[in-house]
Amino acid sequence: MDHYNRYNADPPPGNGNVCGMCATELLAQRQNRVAAEDQWRAPYDHLLAKEKYPQFGVDPDNLLPTCHTCNSKAKLAKDLLRDPEGLRRTCFDPWSESAHEQVALQVEFLDILPIATWTMTPIDPINQSKLTTWNEIYRIKERIEGEFLSLREKLTEDLDVRDLAVFKNSIEHKARVRLSSARLTPYNYWRGLLYSSLLRLPDQLLERLRAFCLDGLDPNGDAAATYGV
Ligand SMILES: [Zn+2]
Questions:
Q1: How far is the CA of 19 from the centre of ligand 1 (A)?
Q2: DSSP structure class, residue 204
């Protein structure tokens, strides 16, 4: 419990209460007026499964708190060191390495409607291999893109679409806020990456995205009245 509480503490070097593997889920809900030792706790993942690597069964470096989805839905019995064909592969050491700045989430306009696309942006081939393992084990691409399937709703709950100037200001503001609280609230990291990528789009595409968001506002609702549509 002491190890867990230090790991999920909010101030650094604590890692916060958001899953460090996926940033999409809380480790465990916190309860007010409940003592630290009685709080709910996320499961500890054996990075190397104890059945296959019993020598690391109780090694603290092999034990990492992860969210329910990472542990019980995505990873299951997958082996970080061997792919499904049994070939040796490399993986990140979550205690010392990170995928930060090697992943991107951006809006693409290839289809009729804009879609959010998750991509790897590795700094070298070794990191490419580590990113691939991480993605295969924890199904990061499917999960992040799945969250943003409802792209219009996700954008309009955060951004101000009244005109292009305020739209751009709100993107800039939210990119900063979301990234600075990435360890506080699920999906903040991914939202921050998404908004940061929007800031690099030309005005013409941003205007297209804004129109796409406006289209989704209920013509009879409060939001439509506010925006005069
Ligand atoms: Zn997770």
A1: 5
A2: H
Residues in the chain: 229
Query: What pLDDT is stored for residue 228 in this prediction?
Result: 46
Distance (Å) from CA 139 to ligand 1 centroid: 10
How many Cβ atoms sit within 10 Å of the Cβ of residue 179?
A: 15
Centre of ligand 1 to C-alpha 163, Å, is 36
Segment 182-189 mean pLDDT: 97
pTM for this model (two decimals): 0.92
Element (H, E) at 116: strand 115-120
Q: What is the whole-number distance in angstroms between the Cα of residue 37 and the centre of ligand 1?
A: 22
Domain segments of the chain as ranges: 1-77, 79-229
State the average pLDDT over residues 83-87: 94
Q: How many CA atoms lie within 13 A of 85 on its CB side?
A: 3
49 Cα–ligand 1 center, Å:
17
